[in-house]
Amino acid sequence: MKQREIDVAVIGAGPAGLAAAIKAKEEGAESVVILERAEELGGLLSQCVHNGWGLLYFNEDLTGPQYAARFIEKANDLKVGYQLESMVIGMSADRELVAVSIKEGHLRFKPKAVVLAMGCRERTAFNIGIPGTRPAGLFTAGTCQRFVNIEGFLPGERIVILGSGDIGMIMARRLTLEGAKVEAIVEILPYIGGLVRNQVQCVRDFNIPLLLEHTVSNIHGEKRIEAVTISKVDSNREPIPGTEKRIECDTLLTSVGLIPENELSLMAGVELDPITGGPIVDESRQTNIPGIFAGGNCVHVNDLVDNVSWEAELAGASAARFASGRKPLKKGKIAVKPGRNIRYIVPQTITGENEVTLYMRVSSPEERVRIKVGDIMTKAFLVVQPSEMIKLDLSLTQLSQLKEGTRELTVECEKRGGK
Amino acid sequence: MTKEERIICVGCPLACEVRLTIDDKGEVIEIADNKCKEGKKYAIEEYKNPVRILTATVLTRESKHALLPVRTNKPILKWMLRQGMYEIAKVEAKPPVRAGQSLITNLLDTGADLVASADLVD
Predict the structure, then answer these.
(1) ipTM
(2) CATH code of the domain covering residue A44
């Protein structure tokens, strides 16, 4: 068993972990170590070979591996430490970490500060309960992405994709270009789950049928998938009898959402937001447990990696400051509450003393709206949609309008008048 | 004779299906159904020059990694994507390859090179 002195330990070497570790180092933490269960740094970025990464952060159109390489290079230059093939399996409220390593066995760490950067994982067919048999050929879109982009296998030739999340649409294009036939993308909601850019460049460019308000109502096949039945759904998202259609296929991919990974957070008593599924944080990305910070997709699932990097940097900077023993960061005491048609807001609390970016999603699509943050800010939008995150920057001038002793700040999505 | 083209704008989640009327010389003579001026700009550009970055993987040999991710260093016309894949299928990468290194120069006369988008070092 080994024990080491560490200022900041970062759990996970994906985009969040890399950005947090770099920032912690830049902010003066001496020993920063990333703990990563995979063989390489970069997390999911290595299998995301498509472009569209870094448009905001670098103002360049990069692929996933290129985006990762920028951060890995910087981490190496700054001498950020990392421990690969080491999975953290335990964490306590006093920041004792237990990890298992293929090479070194059982490891223990007692860092001065921890950044949670575990990212998220995919919901599966079991999570959403598709009826029918369970033959081979049923994969999540992300697993399929790993097969196609890392391992070099094409998992099937005739594919149906359930859910129109970004990974599903991206795999529709990738599989098509690799010679498979994507028979259909089936989405239960009346609108797509991913970005419009992907709908156009991954689905429409290749004339792939996209069926909204439909679902897979049955899976057929014994050893291997032979076909699926799809049905139109009613307003309660229940299949409408009589609308069944059989599609011959050998593979069904699911792209039905992502879940933040927080088993470790729960072990340490970190309080989670039931809506985001991630830790409740303030503007410095502090959790309720002193010295434990969180950033990236384990806090809430983002649609753009650029935001993951930015948010994780906040966590990294705060962790470095905590580890240094300087004056502790203030806790956010003003609760930022979701009002009409707002599903969630991160951070959930703010101090009101620092500039802050609020990240939020709406509950349902709406046109011609304005988003109101208490009575200190409003911004008009032509359209808002759950799949596209909204970012609002609150300046110190705006925050100074908050009344003394304010404990709650409600964010609402209001319908605008006019045509 | 005029014809009609429909282009979905990717500028925002509104995803306007912009309707372009094209004359027999291929010039855009009318634009409708866009809800803002960005949509108009996007639709014209997308009609005249619908380009995409092509990303894929190539097989490797003598490497512990099965594949190397690749991309075009410039966007190419979207109807060249499938044809590009046939060229990519002919390439094999052997370590060491550095990110940015060209594997096919001037892919199908598009003016774009196919480059490695990661290092291949074992």
Answers:
(1) 0.93
(2) 3.50.50.60
Q: Where are the beta strands (DSSP E) in A309-376?
A: 334-338, 342-346, 349-350, 356-362, 366-373
For chain A, the domain total comes to 3
* A192 contact partners, CB below 8 Å, separation of at least 6: A164, A169, A199, A210, A212, A387
Domain identity same for A107 and A48: yes
Domain span at residue A396 reads 334-415
pLDDT tens digits along B11-29? 887 889 999 999 999 999 9
- Three-state secondary structure call for residue A411: strand
Render A69-104 in DSSP notation, one character per residue: HHHHHHHHHTT-EEE-SEEEEEE-TT--EEEEETTT
Same domain, A45 and A83: yes
Q: From the CA of A149, how many Å to the nearest CA of chain B? A: 7
- Token representation of residue A417: 């008048």
Subunit contact B56:A177, Cβ cutoff 8 A: yes
Indicate whether A250 and A128 sit together in one domain.
yes
Tally A–B CB contacts below 8 A: 80
Whether residue A312 has pLDDT greater than 90: yes
**Whether residue A101 is found in the same domain as residue A135:** no
Interchain CB distance below 8 Å, B14 and A46? no
Nearest CA in chain B to A150: B67
Q: Which two tokens stand for residue A53?
A: 């990464």
- Separation between Cα atoms, residue A217 and residue A231, nearest integer Å: 6
> Would residue A170 count as lying in a domain?
yes
Q: Which of A324, A353, A382 is the last residue of a domain?
A: A324
Q: What is the pLDDT of residues A177-211, one digit of tens each?
A: 999 999 999 999 999 988 889 999 999 999 999 99
DSSP state of A53: E
- Residue A329 in any domain: the answer is no
Pick the CATH number of B55-116 from 3.20.20.70, 3.50.50.60, 3.10.530.10, 3.40.50.1010: 3.10.530.10
Question: Is B57 within 8 Å of A61 when comparing Cβ atoms?
Answer: no
pLDDT digits (tens, 9 = 90+) for A219-251: 999 999 999 999 999 999 999 999 999 999 999
What pLDDT does residue A1 have? 47
Does residue B19 contact residue B6 with C-beta atoms inside 8 Å? yes
pLDDT recorded at residue A132: 77
Closest CA to A304 of A106, A69, A115, A55: A55
Q: Do B10 and A201 touch (CB under 8 A)?
A: yes
Res. A11: pLDDT tops 50: yes
**Which long-range contacts does B32-40 make (Cβ < 8 Å, 24+ apart)?**
B34/B9, B35/A382, B36/A382, B36/B11, B38/B9, B38/B11, B38/B12, B39/B9, B39/B11
Asked if B99 reaches chain A (Cβ–Cβ under 8 Å), the answer is: yes
Tokens standing for residue A188: 């239960």
